[in-house]
TrEMBL record:
Belongs to the UDP-galactopyranose/dTDP-fucopyranose mutase family. Its cofactor is FAD. This is UDP-galactopyranose mutase. It comes from the Bacteria.
Length: 365
């Protein structure tokens, strides 16, 4: 055989595997069905602004080894995610912290904020929350729920909060400090010049074929290499024989605007139900670039059907059971490894994918 490994998919998982296996002397072919590299972390240069084409991507991790690893492929800036919520034209800081509590209730000290939250929770005696609405109110009270959670969540899931299961919100982190940093992680940033360069560097010197769908020539592709690393959808690999795993999808609407600064922040969430998008991203604020124009993206949650871009797996019992059946098939494969978010039907952040890919490579004898 010409190749030791066929890698299906040029996202973070496939590309790290390709890079690490090449270093170990293996001969690799990577195929990618899209017309570009990098999977969902793909960023496209638009006159100096790096546009995150598949949704805003902010790198964050507590794992120093992962941080050091990704920094080998690009220099990262000091971007700190501090999203803002817009509810009926009033602005609130996120995540829920002393700034938010001041904006909501005028409270100025942690003691006052804690008392206010307790008072709100006590207004409703919910012992066993039966749905997401009851769960959220029992955790945080009615004001925060109605202003900052309800509409956003209903748009995100396409269902009323009273029809959503309580487990979607297990806990709602609140901070009694004036700290708008969304992530608690030690390391955070955005690669200067975007994410695509990271994947390009990983794939230097590797045979890559774009616009090549594994399934268009499945039988031939299965014969191309001694082993396969597959990062596409697991249910599709098995011809949806048990049915399709479900997702939520997204629709992105990009707009170029002839002003240098549209909203003053990278991410603004729209938390009222009546506005159909969940957030507006202004890409230039990830990179701190100075240009006369700006590019914004409105993010609309969508129902998903086979053929649409799959973004968020639905973590309910039905899909968990279905995935288990596909996983049993995958576990029997001797020459094919299933990795990454689509093959494992799991929402992973980038740092999880790096860890998983490196663990997998290190497990190869
Ligand atoms: P992918 O990037 O999806 O790569 C899979 C690749 O395989 C794709 O290029 C696909 O085209 C290709 N492929 C699939 N099927 C075939 C086939 N049949 N033939 C050939 N090629 C195929 N993570 C963070 O850490 N921070 C964030 O801020 C963040 N924001 C996110 C925002 C959104 C809206 C979403 C959806 C995800 C976000 N993530 C974020 C998660 C991040 O996108 C993933 O962790 C990462 O992209 C997963 O990499 P992957 O290689 O597993 O999958």
């Amino acid at each position: 055989m010409k190749y030791d490994y066929l890698i299906v998919g040029s996202g973070l998982f496939g590309s790290i595997c390709a890079y690490e296996l090449k270093k170990r002397g293996y001969k690799i072919l990577l195929i990618e069905k899209r017309d570009h590299l990098a999977g969902n972390i793909y960023t496209e240069d638009n006159e100096g602004i790096q546009v995150h084409k598949y949704g805003a991507h902010i790198f964050h991790t507590n794992n120093k080894a992962v941080w050091d690893y990704i920094n080998r492929f690009a220099e990262f800036n000091r971007f700190t995610n501090s999203p803002i919520a817009n509810y009926k034209n009033k602005l609130f800081n996120l995540p829920f912290n002393m700034n938010t509590f001041y904006q909501l209730w005028g409270v100025k000290t942690p003691k006052e904020a804690k008392a206010k939250i307790e008072e709100q929770k006590k207004l409703y005696h919910i012992e066993n929350p039966k749905n997401l609405e009851e769960q959220a109110i029992s955790l945080i009270g009615k004001d925060i729920y109605e202003i900052l959670i309800k509409g956003y969540t209903e748009k995100q899931w396409g269902r009323k909060a009273t029809e959503l299961p309580p487990f979607i919100i297990n806990r709602l982190p609140v901070r009694f400090t004036f700290d708008n940093n969304y992530f608690n992680d030690k390391y955070q940033g955005i690669p200067i010049g975007g994410y695509t360069q990271i994947i390009e560097k990983m794939l230097e010197g590797i045979d890559v074929e774009l616009n090549t769908d594994f399934f268009e020539n499945k039988e031939k592709n299965l014969e191309l290499a001694n082993k396969i690393i597959y990062t596409g959808s697991i249910d599709k690999f098995y011809d949806y024989q048990y049915g399709a795993l479900e997702y939520r999808s997204l629709h992105f609407e990009n707009e170029t605007i002839n002003e240098s600064n549209y909203q003053g922040n990278a991410v603004i969430n729209y938390t009222e139900y009546e506005i159909p998008y969940t957030r507006i991203i202004e890409h230039k604020h990830f990179d701190y670039v100075e240009t006369d124009h700006t590019i914004i993206t409105k993010e609309y949650p969508r129902d998903w059907k086979i053929g649409d871009e799959a973004y968020y797996p639905i973590n309910d019992d039905k899909n968990a059971t279905l995935f288990k059946k596909y996983k049993e098939l995958a576990d029997q494969e001797k020459l094919i490894h299933f990795g990454g978010r689509l093959a494992e039907y799991k929402y992973y952040d980038m740092h999880n994918v790096i860890e998983n890919a490196l663990n997998f490579i290190n497990s190869i004898k």
